[in-house]
Amino acid sequence: MTGARPALDRESAIAAYLKYADRMPQLADGDLPAQTQVVHNILEIADQFDVIIFDAFGVLNSGVHAIPGALSAVSALRKRGVDLAVVTNDASNTAEAIITRHRNRGFDFTVESLVSSAKYIVPMMDRHFDVTQWGIMAPQHWPIDGLPGQARFLADDPGIYDAAEGFVLIDSDEWHGARQQLLEASLAKKPRPILVGNPDICAPMGDFLSVESGYFAHLAADACGVMPQCVGKPYREVFDDILNRHPTVDRSRILMVGDTLHTDVLGGLAAGIKTLLVTRGGFLDGYEDLTGLYQRSGIHPHFIAPAIGHGLE
């Protein structure tokens, strides 16, 4: 994530998540907890879990900085012997680059502890065996040569859009309104598959919410009526990856920690694991009507805390 992304205000982001909720995983009866328990920080409930999964942005860090108390919380969990993992929708960077950034913030995560949506982009494309010409939303440094078929970056030439047999939206770093208009106009003329490597609508970047690929995918879908196909939170592949690593751990002993209802909490609930929503340093920082948001979304977590390391700063 290197460029100057467009920003989105929180109310618009919430409205978009609510508008497109039917394109996200649907919860079955019994997936929601009976109530949400308020806790001080993650250490208050740590003894209930053998595996804890963290979202990165808004939980561990906000922008380039670690969220206060997060380093202490992760260190304390390590000492208790809890197995920790990180799940990210940052499909624009390699696992090594992501882990290096976390280590520069002071975290001790390894490449093996990371599950990125990027891992599932090629398998998603391979399912479309009849598509050979792909248009790719990604910055110019992204390793496009590793994709199947003939892939071209979506730029300012309308011909690239019309020649594509399918689209893969990976990273919005160099995206702007004119390119979005070209994408929507081309899809309106001829609907084609829309694949999404980062289904986030927005991401907390410290003092603003950056607009992510998922937002543009939904707008493109509106233009042509094609359901976007997504990998990453809240969809199952990334959660199944971690569950498959711990086949003997009961799902009630696995916790997903995130800062959004429609990616982290929804994904955890759909996977049948416990969920913790944090409210400071991420998407909901300063938000005052969580009860109303629960009611509007039909989603609520098992636990809620200000931050994983609240009081440990």
List the helices and strands and how they pair.
Blueprint: H1 10-19, E1 37-38, E2 51-55, E3 61-62, E4 65-66, H2 70-79, E5 83-88, H3 95-105, E6 114-116, H4 121-126, E7 133-137, E8 150-153, H5 158-163, E9 166-169, H6 177-189, E10 194-196, E11 202-204, E12 209-211, H7 213-224, E13 229-230, H8 236-245, E14 254-258, H9 261-270, E15 274-278, H10 290-297, E16 303-305
Parallel strand pairs: 1-16, 2-5, 2-14, 5-6, 7-8, 7-9, 9-10, 10-13, 14-15, 15-16
Antiparallel strand pairs: 3-4, 11-12
Helix pairs in contact: 6-7
Protein name: HAD family hydrolase
GO molecular function, one term: phosphatase activity
Organism: Thalassospira mesophila
Task: Write up what this structure looks like.
One of its GO terms (cellular component) is cytoplasm. Pfam families: Hydrolase_6 (PF13344), Hydrolase_like (PF13242). This is HAD family hydrolase. One of its GO terms (molecular function) is phosphatase activity. This protein is α/β, with parallel strands linked by helices and 313 residues long. The chain folds into two domains: 29-119 and 233-305, Rossmann fold (3-Layer(aba) Sandwich), CATH 3.40.50.1000; 120-230, Rossmann fold. 31% of the residues lie in helices and 18% in strands. The chain has helices spanning 10-19, 70-79, 95-105, 121-126, 158-163, 177-189, 213-224, 236-245, 261-270, 290-297; strands at 37-38, 51-55, 61-62, 65-66, 83-88, 114-116, 133-137, 150-153, 166-169, 194-196, 202-204, 209-211, 229-230, 254-258, 274-278, 303-305. It has a seven-stranded parallel beta sheet, sandwiched between helices. The longest helix is centred in the middle third of the chain and has 13 residues, at 177-189. It is globular. The two termini are 27 Å apart.
